[in-house]
Specification:
CATH architecture of the largest domain: 3-Layer(aba) Sandwich
CATH superfamily of the largest domain: Resolvase, N-terminal catalytic domain
Organism: Acetobacter senegalensis
GO molecular function, one term: DNA strand exchange activity
CATH topology of the largest domain: Rossmann fold
Structural class: alpha/beta
Helix content: 40-55%
Keywords: DNA integration, DNA recombination, DNA-binding
Family: Belongs to the site-specific recombinase resolvase family.
Protein name: Resolvase domain-containing protein
Largest sheet: 4 strands, parallel
Strand content: 5-15%
Length: about 230
Amino acid sequence: MNTLSSRRKVGYARVSTVGQTLELQIKTLQEYGCRKIYREKASGADAERAELRKLIASLKEGQSVVVTRLDRLARSTFDLFAIVKSITDKKAQFYSLAEPWTDTSTSTGRLMLAVLGGLADVERDLIRTRTSEGRARAIRQGKRMGRPPRITEAQRQEIIQRRSNGETLHSIAKSYDISDGTVSRIASGKDSHASRKKAESGQAPSAVVVKKASRSTRSHTRPKAHPASQEPA
């Protein structure tokens, strides 16, 4: 591509499946004139691609990032837009050999980048909507959301019993590989599991109940003033 002939070219090659090789991509990039090529062998499921991060961090103004195909750089429109924007923010350019319209040094390429931005917004909204719908559906089906608890209900009861027997926080914590603070919260019924159980059953938090009870107690136990007795004349 003549528009990139005068620029310094930096190649990026990636394989996303175990057993694939980078040889063909590297050969193609070298034939195009890329002197420096970053080689990514991580799985395509790995969002934290170390070589890509190094490439973007080292970019200089006027350089061009070159890939053999768009799918070697990103797995979605949202990813593609974010990565290309990171490149252009450093006043560098991007080009895909298989998709010449991606040349960001041309007006057509810049227009396509703007279109990608709009598509990325649509994709992000769709993902957000699907996630919300999936979460709502799971809740309706009685499925529990979030991470599974590290401590089972049976273990919680054991911790409460051991603590009531006078065993130290540290000793109990060591048994279950949890922190002293977690043991303390479980023993006092203030851990997230207990709070969730109370919320599901419609019970008010214990702290609120105690506070209200103490007010009620104070109001009923407040001493009453008695009129002074009068001595008969």
